[in-house]
Amino acid sequence: MNKPRIWTAETIAIGSELLLGGRLDTNSLFIADHLAACGVELRYKTTVGDDVSDIVAVLKTAVRRSRVVVLTGGLGPTIDDLTREAVARATGRRLARRKAALDGMIARLAEWGRTATTSQFRQAMIPAGADILPNPVGTAPGFALTWKGTFLAALPGVPREMEPMVKECVLPRLQEWLNAQKTVAVTPIVRRVLHTSGVPESLVDQKLTGLIPAGSPIQLGIYASPMEIMVSLTGPAAVKAQGPVTIDALFDETRDRLRDILYGEEGDTMESVVGRLLGEQKLTLAVAESCTGGLIGHRLTQVPGSSGYLDRVAVTYSNRAKVELLGVPAALIDRHGAVSAEVAAAMAHGMRERSGTSVGLSVTGIAGPGGATETKPVGLVYVGLDGGPNDTLTKEFRFHGGDRNVIKQRSSQAALDLLRRWLIKKGQG
Amino acid sequence: MNKPRIWTAETIAIGSELLLGGRLDTNSLFIADHLAACGVELRYKTTVGDDVSDIVAVLKTAVRRSRVVVLTGGLGPTIDDLTREAVARATGRRLARRKAALDGMIARLAEWGRTATTSQFRQAMIPAGADILPNPVGTAPGFALTWKGTFLAALPGVPREMEPMVKECVLPRLQEWLNAQKTVAVTPIVRRVLHTSGVPESLVDQKLTGLIPAGSPIQLGIYASPMEIMVSLTGPAAVKAQGPVTIDALFDETRDRLRDILYGEEGDTMESVVGRLLGEQKLTLAVAESCTGGLIGHRLTQVPGSSGYLDRVAVTYSNRAKVELLGVPAALIDRHGAVSAEVAAAMAHGMRERSGTSVGLSVTGIAGPGGATETKPVGLVYVGLDGGPNDTLTKEFRFHGGDRNVIKQRSSQAALDLLRRWLIKKGQG
After folding, report:
1. In 3D, which of A267, A272, A231, A265 has the Cα closest to residue A416?
2. Nearest C-alpha of chain B: how many angstroms from A93?
3. Are B301 and A317 within 8 A, CB to CB?
4. pTM to 2 decimal places
């Protein structure tokens, strides 16, 4: 064992759709982050279908190797929701209808002007002796119990129900339970994250060569996705356990080495960073999208408060829409094609002029699979920005590999990053 | 055991970034689909970090409960790549540098004009007696072996390397191995899927009560997400193994019971169904979004060929944009508020008129967390549709629970579903 003083955890995601249905368990990542903050390290993730004996088998394996087990899913009202039964069977407890669980469910339904159906009553059947974990969003309560020296919590699989329940119900109970365990000291784990954009993983890797000194318990992670390369530093929270260099010092050095390609830290997203810059500089934005089809607008409006700076978005998918909504000259489209730097510039200009906003941003490109020509391949994308007279930009991108969705994602990221860099320069000037 | 004649499988995804790094194992879904076609059912998915003893423990659990085990990841050249060592240790085999593995790697690098580095030689260390699986894309070969009556394959974690290796190397070897096992007949598994919208999970469950007859090996799955309730039927492909009622007959009955709430089958999405109906009827569409912020446009343009019917989308986030881009009377907004049936109707009307398309679709609502008033709570959404004079619709929705993102998703689904129902009626008229 190379991690003797850290508590180990395991997540079990329950649902046949997670095995075969084209759907992934995303809950375990959220749980891993929150357990780490309590000094509990996620070591295993298991996914199992809606089959009582399979779930029981997985539970028995989990308690043999992990001190904390968090189950998600299988708490709904249907006959394939089997988590309650499996936990009862594995732990040798009876299932009993619990008044607190029932009352919470009825109260929640009443808020929505509904009454409980017979099948929903199943949701109030909880293993005997378990703590009920109220669900602040939906109708299915969770529960927690200890079994063979393991802390076990069962939560709904719906992320917007599971997430507040982890924060409000599971973590306080877990912390209390950990404090009561005298045998092993708990060392919280911290994880610090930086976000880069516009460069390949190999370049980030190269810039960070030799960052972590020998003998350091701090782990460096470099993770690629279509949108970005993310960098993380993970290690014990206590400074004296961090070895030759502290995690904060390494974080500063990482930031320094990646300076030109960083766009954010920790929970930042490109759209939240752009939104913050627009808000700080009291600027307003209008966007003209073509190949991204609305994705830039969707991303910008994921940020609460975006109505403060985002005035409008036009998805001008047809050439006629580019002419009518943005005033792009039809002759310009004829001459250069809709996917060209000239049309990107005209789209950004028209958008800014017609909306009266501080800045216009545009994207036009070929997301595929159709639409390519001899000279214009799938993945060719132009971004335009108009910040007023003598303050315009266009940039060409060629995205290789990846389907329609990946090209839309990378195009939206490239456009927002161009805007971010322009905003930073403007803020400094 | 309630599935005695089906072979069971398990995937093991190896890599610490899959536990903690914000990245998900997507390979297991691909593997599950391809194993099912061979009659092998995925029962468990496990994810484990880059720790030899943890990987060994997971391997030992896997061979106890599954006859087929597929590992992904941990075959690269770095010291974090520990799959080879873990398999050797678990199975009691030596690691030996194998000529075939080395030659394949050197040939691949030569194609790229490169030579092997010292660390890459590690990739040719394969457990003794294992079959080498050539990598047609990258440098790391995989391998396959049998151990304690279990077929075990180890593959790279990069999807574009893993996927051809499953098809070209693993499945033929697996099929041969299955044929040689005389004890259990192999039955391919089929899965059929239906999609519903606009109703809660409990209603779908109620409509399907008693669907599956006693003694049937066919499994019913009901899966909820913010967008829809999905229903699946899974069972053996051979008709005589399907028990009292065939899967096709059950599929037809399911379709019949859910008729009014179904929107699609198998790989359909709401946006692909709407796109198909628009294409069939040669109609064009323009969309005016407010609270959904571009999500409807993004979804519609995920469908290849959507430029054939989608003319434009306007995200009129500000009231001024609603007036300027859509011609919504400012007085109407003053009187009823931007979130009202009246403004939804005016948005759809203005969009259709100004774009000259067959139909205008609009959404206005409060996605939260801000923006609510005494009479207009977060989750209040209006959808409008304008198909020409005397052919208009508006509909009010009240979405309870869920954050900004969920309300955007549910609003986009409700709007597209309203359009779908209108298109079906129009097609029949």
Report:
1. A272
2. 22
3. yes
4. 0.84
Cβ A317–B296 below 8 Å, yes or no? no
B37 and chain A in contact, CB less than 8 A: no
The average pLDDT across A384-388 equals: 97
Pick from B29, B222, B313: which is nearest to A22 by CB? Answer: B29
Question: Matching CATH topology for B189-265 and B278-428?
Answer: no
Range with the poorest average pLDDT among A12-16, A176-180, B187-191, B378-382: B187-191
Q: Respond yes or no on whether the N-terminal peptide bond of residue A213 is cis (omega within 30° of 0).
A: no
CA separation, residue B98 to residues A161, B86, B95, B126, B136 (Å): 51, 17, 9, 7, 17
Name the H helices within A214-281: 247-257, 270-280
Q: What CATH number is given for B7-180 in this structure?
A: 3.40.980.10
Q: Please state, in angstroms and rounded to a whole number, the distance separating the CA atoms of residues B112 and B122.
A: 19
Count of beta carbons in the 10 Å neighbourhood of residue B327 = 14
Region A340-357: mean pLDDT is 97
Chain B residues closer than 8 Å to A17 by CB: 221, 223, 230, 232
Query: Could you read off the pLDDT of A69-82 as tens digits, one per residue?
Result: 999 999 988 888 99
Instruction: Return the C-alpha torsion angle B184, B190, B196, B200, nearest 10.
Output: 10
User: What does the pLDDT read at residue B108?
Assistant: 82
Residues of B in contact with A218 (CB under 8 A): none
Q: Is the pLDDT of residue B261 over 50?
A: yes
Rounded CA separation A414/B392 (Å): 39
A24 touches chain B (CB under 8 A): yes
B270 touches B263 (CB < 8 A): yes
Question: Which residues 51-80 of A have a C-beta within 8 angstroms of B?
Answer: 51, 53-54, 57-58, 61, 65, 76-80
Helices and strands of chain A, counted as H and E runs: 16, 17
Q: Identity (one letter) of the amino acid at B152? A: L
Q: Does B206 touch chain A (CB under 8 A)?
A: yes
Contact B19 A32 (CB under 8 A): yes
Structure tokens belonging to residue B138: 């990258």
CATH architecture of B189-265: 2-Layer Sandwich (3.30)
Which 80-139 residues of chain B touch chain A by CB within 8 A? none
The model's pLDDT over B118-137, given as tens digits with 9 standing for 90+, comes to 777 888 999 999 999 999 88
Q: Domain B278-428 adopts which CATH fold?
A: Maf protein (3.90.950)
Interface of A with B in 358-397 (CB under 8 A): 367-371
- Indicate the average pLDDT of chain B: 91
Considering only CB atoms, B298 lies closest to which of A47, A50, A298, namely A298
Q: What is the mean pLDDT of the segment spanning A247-261?
A: 96
Instruction: Give CA–CA dist A220/A213, Å, rounded.
Output: 11
- Chain segment A318-335, per-residue pLDDT in tens: 999 999 999 999 999 999
What are the domain boundaries of chain B? 7-180, 189-265, 278-428
Any idea which architecture A282-428 has in CATH?
A: Alpha-Beta Complex (3.90)
CB atoms inside a 10 Å sphere around CB B123: 24
Give Rg (Cα) of chain B.
Answer: 27
Nearest CB neighbour to A160, from listed B16, B300, B403: B403
